[in-house]
Specification:
This protein has about 250 residues and is α/β, with parallel strands linked by helices. The chain has one domain: 3-Layer(aba) Sandwich (Rossmann fold), CATH 3.40.50.450. Helix 3 packs parallel to helix 4 and helix 3 packs parallel to helix 8. About 50% of the residues lie in helices and about 10% in strands.
């Protein structure tokens, strides 16, 4: 039994050493040759990720992105809801895009796959080696090194966003979509938060602090909807495009 605590202690020590190395490296002076070689490689890597993303996603058609936690298990109610939302979106003519990993992302791809629709996964390399889930179409799986490139793909090729319960990553993705729509950098696409109880604390804070302190405008609250069922989530997206007499086949 003593082996497990020892291994964990060694793993924690290794993580601490790596973090210290990153911090020290950030303060280290670099000469011009080192800067040029390092930054040039990064530029070409970023360019290659953009090119691959644009080429693979340019013809996927109208899709809805489903954001949410990687940590939920298949028996979790939110996993089941995400799978059902994806299934119904495909039945309405949309494809489904996710972050390509486990949890809510897997549920979204699973629902799209089960309905016979387009199932896109924008995966990312992480320290714990996140792998693409098995429900992504093989020709629609892309794995990125850079979060910012991946986020560009989410917002560039989605006609709507369904935000399931999640942690920091999910909140980051939600904030990105809201900011780009608020500042009119992308079109006014529907954003649907699923789980009124889960999101209520954050929504109350937005209303009672951000609006009251005039950090955002009251009308910014109209940039998103909050629902509790898969049917209502899909209905919000359908109703949004019905106003413009558009169907998923545009």
């Amino acid at each position: 039994m003593a082996a497990k605590p020892k291994k964990k202690k060694e793993a924690d020590l290794q993580i601490s050493l790596e973090e210290e190395h990153r911090i020290r490296k950030a303060f280290k002076d670099k000469d011009w040759a080192e800067i040029k070689s390092s930054d040039s490689w990064v530029i070409f890597k970023v360019m290659s990720e953009f090119v691959e993303g644009f080429e693979k996603l340019a013809k996927i058609g109208p899709c809805v992105t489903i954001f949410g936690s990687a940590r939920v298990k298949p028996d979790n109610k939110y996993y089941k809801m995400a799978e059902e939302i994806a299934y119904q979106l495909v039945q309405q003519g949309y494809g489904v895009v996710t972050g390509g990993g486990p949890g809510i992302m897997e549920a979204g791809n699973k629902g799209a796959n089960r309905a016979g629709g387009k199932s896109v996964g924008l995966n990312i390399y992480l320290p714990h080696e996140q792998k693409g889930n098995p429900y992504i179409d093989p020709d629609k799986l892309i794995t990125f090194d850079y979060f910012f490139v991946r986020k560009v793909m989410f917002v560039k090729y989605s006609q709507g966003f369904v935000v399931m319960p999640g942690g920091f990553g999910t909140i980051d993705e939600l904030s990105e979509a809201l900011t780009l729509i608020q500042t009119k950098k992308i079109g006014r696409f529907p954003i649907v938060l699923v789980g009124k109880k889960f999101w209520s604390g954050m929504i109350d804070w937005i209303k009672e602090v951000l609006v009251d302190e005039k950090m955002i405008s009251p009308e910014d609250l109209d940039l998103f909807s909050i629902v509790d069922t898969p049917e209502d989530a899909v209905q919000v997206i359908d109703d949004f495009y019905a106003k413009y007499l558009l169907s998923p086949n545009f």
